[in-house]
Hints:
Strand content: 5-15%
Helix content: 55-70%
Shape: globular
Largest sheet: 3 strands, antiparallel
CATH class of the domain at 28-107: Mainly Alpha
Order of helices and strands: HHHEHHEEHH
CATH topology of the domain at 28-107: Arc Repressor Mutant, subunit A
Number of helices: 7
CATH superfamily of the domain at 28-107: Winged helix-like DNA-binding domain superfamily/Winged helix DNA-binding domain
Amino acid sequence: MSEQVEHSARACDGALARAFGFLGKRWNGILLATLGHGPAGFSDLRRTVAGISDSVLSDRLGELCRAGLVSRTVHEGPPVSVVYELTDSGHALAPALSELTTWARENLPPERCAGESA
């Protein structure tokens, strides 16, 4: 019986697995953290999140909107503009993202940019 209890204590938490599966997808966490500083348009996000392509940015924003973490508001023009911002669910992630950021600064070596010498 104690073997079953010990095993279940080590079982993977399904909710945590889903969270890391979603947040671990490249750019999702970065976009959420970036939008944590306030609403932003597509071009602003593209400039702020270095290295993301337009198509991937569009895909990730759509995914974040479908997950209910980000809202998309179209402002009729001219010119027409689209603004993305965190929903209440997205804002609820802010403390966890902040803690992850602090942990990474304290425990992970900084990544070097391409061409940078040691």
